[in-house]
């Protein structure tokens, strides 16, 4: 239950890039008093699908000098890298995990600034499984653990849903050697294994780099609908 019933409550579901960017924006612009609840599946801030990868081989596809989270400060990410002692240039493509660290840093800076003007940013751990707007009492959110909470407004920042494996007759995608997603625990035991990647875009390159990092040296083939890279 909200301790101060007079303050506006906004719940943001999803603590990846969009959720964090929305929270930073609300910390600056919401009339006070207000509470912004950032609901994060695992309690992390900024680590969605793209930037949550811990692999140093998974790089941003936009140069560091153009990745500022504030559109008024395009070079904000590069300035952050320099502040923490990393001498990257504006044209460098850097590990995505560094971008998650930058988002987290910006979130906590916004939290301090918001607090000073009566807007509290709070991180809550949970996975939201149900949202209802019964009317005068605002919006009710229910977490997977069964916890219920209320808000005046909700921002859905859920990211991309997991891709569906292609329908192949007789294939269930849970057999050894078949991976329906390149994310998570991608393991190939045989260093000489031949690997077929379905797709030839950025995700396929992430998978290729990860395979090479795992020591897989066999032939890797990318399958492209149009015979093109990306
Ligand atoms: C592999 C990959 C690489 C990319 N690289 C770049 C790049 O280099 N540069 C660039 O500009 N863009 C890149 N993008 C695009 C990038 O993903 C988007 O710009 C941005 O990260 C999307 O942010 P998002 O908040 O929508 O999603 P995400 O950052 O994925 O965040 C969504 C979050 O919501 C959470 N969530 C979902 N459902 C619930 C729920 N029910 N309850 C609680 N939490 C929930 C998820 O767990 C996740 O943490 C890339 C995308 C991918 C897939």
Largest sheet: 4 strands, parallel
Q: N-to-C SSE series?
A: EHEHHEEEEEEHE
Record the strand order, biggest sheet.
3-2-1-7
Helix content percent band = 10-25%
Distance between the termini: 48 Å
Beta fraction of the residues? Answer: 15-25%
Q: Based on DSSP secondary structure assignment, what is the total number of beta strands?
A: 9
Low-confidence stretches: none
| Cofactors and ligands | flavin-adenine dinucleotide
Q: Which class of secondary structure composition applies to the elements? A: alpha/beta
- Taken from the alpha-carbon principal axes, the silhouette is globular
Radius of gyration: 21 Å
Query: What's the tally of helices?
Result: 4
The averaged pLDDT comes out at 92
Key features of this structure:
230 residues; 4-stranded parallel sheet; 4 helices; 9 strands; 22% strand; globular; binds flavin-adenine dinucleotide
Descriptive account of the structure:
With 230 residues, the protein is of the alpha/beta class. It contains four helices and nine strands, in the order βαβααββββββαβ. The protein has helices at residues 17-29, 76-83, 96-116, 202-213; strands at 8-13, 34-40, 119-125, 128-135, 138-143, 148-151, 153-156, 195-198, 220-223. A four-stranded parallel beta sheet has the order 3-2-1-7. A three-stranded antiparallel beta sheet has the order 4-5-6, with no helix packed on it. Strands 8-9 form a two-stranded parallel ribbon. A hairpin with a 2-residue loop joins strand 4 and strand 5. The longest helix has 21 residues, at 96-116. The protein is globular, with a radius of gyration of 21 Å. It binds flavin-adenine dinucleotide (FAD). Residues 13-19, 39, 41, 48-50, 60-62, 127-128, 157-159, 202-203, 206 line the site of flavin-adenine dinucleotide.
